[in-house]
Design a protein that fits this description.
CATH architecture of chain A: 3-Layer(aba) Sandwich
Strand content of chain B: 25-35%
Number of strands of chain A: 11
Helix content of chain B: under 10%
Structural class of chain A: alpha/beta
Structural class of chain B: mainly beta
CATH topology of chain A: Peroxisomal Thiolase, Chain A, domain 1
Strand order of the largest sheet of chain A: 3-2-4-7-1-8-11-10-9
Helix content of chain A: 25-40%
CATH class of chain A: Alpha Beta
Strand order of the largest sheet of chain B: 5-4-3-6-7
Oligomer: heterodimer
Largest sheet of chain A: 9 strands, mixed
Number of domains of chain A: 1
Order of helices and strands of chain B: HEEEEEEE
Largest interface: A-B, 32 and 34 residues
Number of helices of chain B: 1
Chain lengths: 430, 144
C-alpha cells in the first residue's frame, strides 16, 4: 500500500512532545518502517577523474563492493533501483543495468529527481519491500560525469535547472541560480560572506580524512574568501565538484539483514518537500526554507525524534549556502542562524552536530546525495575511521558513538528535497 | 557609445503558447498573463497555474524592483567567453509577478550594468533590446 502524504506543513517535532501521536500519514509511514526496513550494505568507488572506466562498468564495480560489504551474492538481490546517466543515454536505466550485470530482478525502477534522487531511491526500495515486490533491493548510482559527458548531456543538465524561454536566455547558470537565492538570504538575515566560507573550511577538514575525497587539502575561511568569483556570492571553492565514480547501498528487511555480514542501519524516518521548479518561481526565502525543510521535519516526526537527538548530519551541499538553509528548514537552527552556528564550529568533527563528515559535494565528490547516505551508514556502524587505509592516507572521521543521523538531497535549485533519518537501533514499536 | 556587437547568446526556446508574449515584445509592448480573476502571473502559459483557467493578457508598466541578483563572472556557454561580468536579476514587477532578466546600463540594452551599480531594492524599468530581427529581449535598467 502506498503512503499518501498530505501536502502542507507538518508539526515541528521540537514543539511536539506527543511523539506517540501523529497524523494518519505519519502513522502509516511508521507502520511501514516498523517492519525494520534497513540498509544492510554500502559501497563506494574511488572518486575523481576516472577516464579509463565507463558508466556501467563503474556501477558494476560498486555493486561488487557493496555485495561484499553485505556478505551476499548478486543472486540474493531481487530488486534494483538506479538513477540516470548524463553519458549513457537510456530511458530504461534500471533494466539496462540489470541486463548488463546479468540480473532478472522482480522489481526495477529508475529514479530521476536530480539531487533528491538518492534518498528517493531508498524510499522507492522501502515501498517496494512493503508492497511485497522485492525483499532485497540494490540501490546504485554512478556515472563518468566528469570524463564522459556529452554536449547533449550538458544541455540536459542545464535544462533541468532553468526555464528555456524565461531564464536561460538571460545567461543564468546553475551556480547563479543558487546565487540569486543565496544573495537574498544573506540580505534578509545579514549573513556575512564568512559564513559560507566556514562551511567550505569545515568540510575541507573532514575531506582531509576521507580516503576517496577528491580535495584533501585543508582550506581556511580566508582561502575561500580570496578565491576567484564564479557567480556572487560564490567563489570557486563554494561550488560542488564534478566527478566520476559510483556508490551503492542495499535496502532490505531486518529479518533478511540478520543473516548478512554487517550490522543493519535502520531507516526510521522519511520525508519529502517541494517549493518550486524554477528559481524565478520561488516565492520567498522563507517559502524555500519551509518547502525543503518539510522533508527533514517530516522525516524526524516519523522517526519520533527532535533535532537535539541527532548525532551526525549529512546535509546536501551543492553550494556552501545549501546546507545553511537546510539546517534552518529542518529546525536544527533558527531562521538566519545557521551561518553563526557553522562559524562557531558546531558543524565540525567534535562539534555539537558534525556535518558532512566525508567532505560532501564540495570536497569529496558529486554523486547527488549517494555519498551522504553511505557516510551516514558508515558513521552509524562505527566504520568511519579510514586510518587503516594507509595507501589513501585516510584518517579518523568517526563521530564517537553515533546512533542517529539525518541525511537529505535536493534536486534543482532547492526545488525538491527528500530526507531520511537513519538509526543504529530499530524503530520503536509503531 | 559602443557599437552593438552581433548577438551570439542563446535565444529563447519558444513553444506555441509563448507567441503572444514575444510578439508583443517585438512591438516594444510589455504584457503580462492573467488568470480568470485578473491576477497577473509569471511565467507565461496557455492555462493559469493553480486554476488552469485560460490565460488573458494585460498591459504592464515595465517598472519594478530588484528582489535579488547574482553577478555572473562565468556564463553558461562559450558565447559569454571574454565578456565582462553580467548581472542576472529577479525583478518584482509593480503588477505583482516576479521575473528574471539581465540588468543593462542604458536604454540601448547593452552593455551590462556595472556590478557596483546594482543593489537589492533598486528601482528598475524595462528596456526592449531587439537582439535579432525576430527576437526582442526584455532587459531592465536602473530607473530615473
Amino acid at each position: 500500500m502506498a503512503v499518501f502524504v498530505a501536502p502542507g506543513p507538518v508539526t515541528n517535532p521540537a514543539e511536539d512532545n506527543g511523539m506517540a501521536e501523529g497524523t494518519p500519514d505519519v502513522k502509516e509511514a511508521r507502520r511501514m518502517l516498523g517492519k525494520g526496513i534497513c540498509i544492510a550494505g554500502v559501497g563506494e568507488t574511488e572518486q575523481g577523474i576516472i577516464s579509463d572506466r565507463g558508466s556501467f562498468e563503474l556501477l558494476a564495480e560498486v555493486t561488487r563492493t557493496t555485495l561484499d560489504d553485505a556478505g551476499i551474492e548478486l543472486k540474493d538481490v531481487d530488486g534494483i533501483v538506479t538513477a540516470f546517466s548524463f553519458v549513457e543515454s537510456t530511458l530504461m536505466h534500471s533494466t539496462t543495468l540489470a541486463d548488463y550485470m546479468g540480473m532478472k530482478p522482480g522489481y526495477f525502477a529508475s529514479v530521476a529527481v536530480g539531487g533528491a534522487t538518492a534518498p528517493l531511491m531508498a524510499v522507492q526500495a522501502a515501498l517496494a519491500i512493503d508492497a511485497g515486490l522485492a525483499e532485497c533491493v540494490l540501490c546504485v548510482r554512478g556515472d563518468n560525469t566528469r570524463s564522459g559527458i556529452s554536449s547533449s548531456g550538458m544541455i540536459a543538465m542545464a535544462r533541468e535547472m532553468s526555464h528555456g524561454a524565461y531564464e536561460a536566455p538571460f545567461g543564468l547558470t546553475t551556480i547563479g541560480g543558487y546565487g540569486l537565492l543565496a544573495q537574498r538570504y544573506m540580505y534578509e538575515h545579514d549573513i556575512p560572506q564568512e559564513a559560507l566560507a566556514a562551511v567550505v573550511a569545515t568540510q575541507s577538514e573532514h575531506a582531509a580524512l576521507k580516503w576517496n575525497a577528491m580535495l584533501r587539502n585543508v582550506v581556511s575561511v580566508e582561502d575561500v574568501m580570496n578565491d576567484r568569483w564564479i557567480a556572487t556570492p560564490f567563489h570557486a571553492m563554494d561550488c560542488s565538484l564534478v566527478s566520476d565514480g559510483a556508490a551503492a547501498f542495499i535496502v532490505t528487511t531486518e529479518a533478511r539483514a540478520k543473516s548478512m555480514k554487517k550490522k543493519p542501519v535502520y531507516i526510521t524516518g522519511i520525508g519529502e518537500g517541494f517549493s518550486h521548479q524554477y528559481i524565478s518561481e520561488a516565492e520567498s526565502v522563507a517559502s524555500v526554507r519551509d518547502g525543503l525543510g518539510r522533508a527533514g521535519r517530516r522525516a524526524m516526526e516519523v522517526a519520533g525524534i527532535t533535532p537535539q537527538d541527532l548525532d551526525v548530519a549529512e546535509i546536501y551541499d551543492s553550494f556552501s549556502f545549501t546546507p545553511l538553509i537546510a539546517l534552518e528548514g529542518f529546525g536544527i537552527c533558527g531562521p538566519g542562524e545557521a551561518g553563526d552556528w557553522v562559524l562557531e564550529g558546531n558543524a565540525k568533527l567534535g562539534g555539537k552536530l558534525p556535518m558532512n563528515t566525508h567532505g560532501g559535494l564540495i570536497r569529496q565528490a558529486h554523486l547527488g546525495a549517494m555519498h551522504h547516505i553511505v557516510e551516514a551508514v558508515l558513521q552509524l556502524r562505527g566504520e568511519a575511521d579510514d586510518s587503516a587505509k594507509t595507501e589513501f592516507n585516510g584518517g579518523n572521521h568517526q563521530v564517537p558513538d553515533a546512533k542517529l543521523a539525518i541525511t537529505n538531497g535536493s534536486g534543482g535549485i532547492l526545488a525538491a528535497t527528500s530526507a531520511l533519518v537513519l538509526s543504529s537501533e530499530p524503530p520503536s514499536a509503531a | 557609445m559602443s557599437e552593438k556587437p552581433a548577438y551570439t547568446k542563446p535565444l529563447p526556446d519558444l513553444r506555441p503558447e509563448d507567441a503572444t508574449f514575444w510578439e508583443a515584445l517585438k512591438e516594444h509592448r510589455f504584457i503580462l498573463p492573467c488568470d480568470d480573476t485578473g491576477k497577473a502571473f509569471w511565467y507565461p502559459r496557455k492555462y493559469a497555474p493553480g486554476t488552469l483557467s485560460e490565460t488573458s493578457w494585460t498591459d504592464a508598466s515595465g517598472n519594478g524592483t530588484v528582489y535579488t541578483y547574482s553577478t555572473h563572472f562565468i556564463g553558461p556557454s562559450k558565447a559569454y567567453k571574454g565578456d565582462p561580468p553580467h548581472i542576472v536579476a529577479l525583478i518584482d514587477l509593480d503588477e505583482g509577478p516576479r521575473m528574471m532578466t539581465i540588468l543593462v546600463k542604458d536604454e540601448e540594452g547593452y552593455p551590462s550594468l556595472d556590478p557596483e551599480d546594482v543593489k537589492i531594492g533598486m528601482k528598475v524599468k524595462i528596456v526592449f533590446d531587439d537582439v535579432t530581427d525576430e527576437v526582442t529581449m526584455p532587459k531592465f535598467t536602473p530607473a530615473g
